[in-house]
């Protein structure tokens, strides 16, 4: 009886230690394989963030992690993102990947998560200040804007420019970086008289159309339109077409979603700077996995790449055609 009891206790002890488990590892390995990583996006519906979630799921599976996801109800919904951070910290995540909707207002919640030992990585959009997170995995948004600015300048071939900028919204770093990059690429400073109209669109197609209509009322001779993203660009195209101006106005944009690349292919947009949300999320999850398994912390900025996409290449600006863009697009 005693022998049977001792054997039973030994078996129980071995089971508690994790010996003979399906993963073949000890308790430390099992904890690593079940580590949690959180992904918080601005919205659930934007194809950019849908692709980002796909990349996170793929990378979490490859790295043996459990993925938790959350999103704002709309772009700019800071309250939902704060709640998501708090819920994920309470659930014991090792790291959180976030595309902040309000780059300043999210900072206190990010600080609390980091103080609790959670690795926080911004994807796509840096916080303000950028070092409020441990790391940033993102497109170089300034470079993205600069590329389309350089393209637009070359495409105008010395013709005097009347520029409309259809921007994002005040205080959002990604919008400001793209705007500033475009101006640098085009070779003009903020306030230059060639910039005849600037309107915010929040990256929305209908707001882009309204903004373009307002700009055309203010300055009917606009011949260059910079847009924060392709939905805004397509809205602008609708307004231009209604005025019979779609053929003689150069429209450039940023994002590289499949709909946007097709709009470049059809001539609605002259060129766009393509970014890669799937890679941002894949690399971000891998960084959290490295932290969970060995304590290695990602730090600083990692450029996830940007490519100018156009079927009307210009001298001096490196670009790929829409065949490449469609092979690497999202949405």
UniProtKB/TrEMBL annotation:
Could you state a single Gene Ontology molecular function term?
carbohydrate binding
Task: Return the similarity comment.
Answer: Belongs to the bacterial solute-binding protein 2 family.
Compartments annotated for it: namely: Cell envelope
Entry-linked Pfam families: Peripla_BP_4 (PF13407)
According to the entry, every stretch annotated as the Periplasmic binding protein domain falls at 37-295
> What InterPro entries has UniProt attached to this entry?
Peripla_BP_I, SBP_2_dom
Alphabetical keyword list: Signal
Q: Does the keyword Disulfide bond feature in the UniProt annotation?
A: no
Q: What is this protein called?
A: Fructose transport system substrate-binding protein
What PROSITE patterns does this protein's entry cite? PROKAR_LIPOPROTEIN (PS51257)
Q: Which organism is it from?
A: Nonomuraea muscovyensis
One Gene Ontology cellular component term attached to this UniProt record is: cell envelope
Is Cell membrane included in the keywords of this UniProt record? no
Coarse class of the primary localization is other
